[in-house]
Amino acid sequence: MEKKFIYFICMVSAMGGLLFGYDWVVIGGAKPFYESFFGIASDPVMQGVAMTTALVGCLIGAMVAGALADRYGRKPLLILSAVLFTASALMTGYFDDFTLFNIARFIGGIGIGVASALSPMYIAEVAPTEIRGRMVSLNQMTIVLGILSAQIVNMLIGSGVSAEWGAAWGWRWMFWAETVPAALFLVMAFFIPESPVFLKLKEGSNVADKSQQASWGLLFGGYKKVLLLGIIIAVFQQWCGTNVIFNYAEEIFKSAGFDVDGMFINIVITGIANVLFTFVALYTIEKWGRRTLILIGAGGLGAIYLTLGYCYYIGMTGIFMVALVVAAISCYAMTLGPVTWTLLSEIFPHRVRGIAMAICTFALWTGCCTLTFLFPPMNASLGTYGTFWVYSIICVISFVYLYKNCPETKGKTWEELENLIK
């Protein structure tokens, strides 16, 4: 395939990442408004339900994506995710009933789960070896652009408006704004080809069920070690703690002494840092390698969270706290954010990649779900400082494990990667 066409199809696939990022973060800005509309502002249980419904959908979407992609192909699943994103965006903003609101969020979550598993895998399978890491990192770039887009939309809609208008309409428009990129993704997904790896795997194979059973047997037979590595990398990307900053920015910045308008501005600042340092990753991932970056991420975040926890402990507020949060986001954006998806798309052999990616993506969203659910009680019982110290300890433990077990995949062909981890 010509290079321009490769860039095009990678960009189209990466739009799944854009919608993943937007849908995942938009709820944080809509939170104070829809909580008021649905009357759950003083109900922590229902607040938790609203925040985690989409994550449950992510778990299901990620788990079914691999098996369906190995049976029907990567392209149909990308189209399905676009349909789910579009439907969810329309319905979430439309429904006045809290149960239906959560059903719509659940549907969007399935779309996130499918896209998060399929987009990086598809890109890895169509991109040439010499730019594979950069192209897969492009998926992370679109994720952070989606996050930034949601943050900007939330700020433009939510800042300076009356509480009444925000509760009646503000949160609806935050969700409806997603329909534009979702519809564009849906149309463009029809113009990309099927993955050549999938087509090769299906040559001469007439019995899909036997192929699936063989993949499961291979994965849990000869590839247990690499599966464990993939699961740990996936869960660590969430339990390094950075993503609570996006989901619970209101609580984190209020603890640092900021009001609502200041919170929105600081959220956009973190989103800009997220994008800028993901651009850095596009360059460094092929220069420094995957192993180096993931170790820098684990060690760097461990140190930053240790410092951030101490600052919360002594009651520090103001711009220095924002600087530490931005430092954590920046460190994550150039390391664990893109490198996780690149490693997961590279370390598994073709024969088991679909199922292995589904399992690892399921593990990642399980990590995200538990992280999101446990932050409020951890923050209440341990304090913000204690919570970030826990994340620091997790980063240190993960650094030791990854130093011993994570290989370098930079510049290796699919044939070389097949025998990398046994």
What gyration radius follows from the Cα positions, in whole Å? Answer: 21 Å
User: Which fold does the CATH topology refer to?
Assistant: Growth Hormone, Chain: A
Helix/strand class = mainly alpha
Largest sheet: none
CATH class value: Mainly Alpha
Describe the structure using short key phrases.
422 residues, mainly alpha, Growth Hormone, Chain: A
Describe this structure in words.
This protein is mostly helical. It has one domain (10-418): Up-down Bundle (Growth Hormone, Chain: A), CATH 1.20.1250.20. 84% of the residues lie in helices and 0% in strands. The chain contains 18 helices and no strands. The chain has helices at residues 3-38, 44-72, 74-94, 98-126, 132-158, 163-176, 179-188, 196-202, 208-221, 224-239, 244-247, 249-255, 260-287, 290-313, 319-333, 336-346, 350-405, 414-418. Helix 1 (3-38) packs antiparallel against helix 6 (163-176) and helix 5 crosses helix 16. The longest helix has 56 residues, at 350-405. The chain is globular and about 60 Å long.
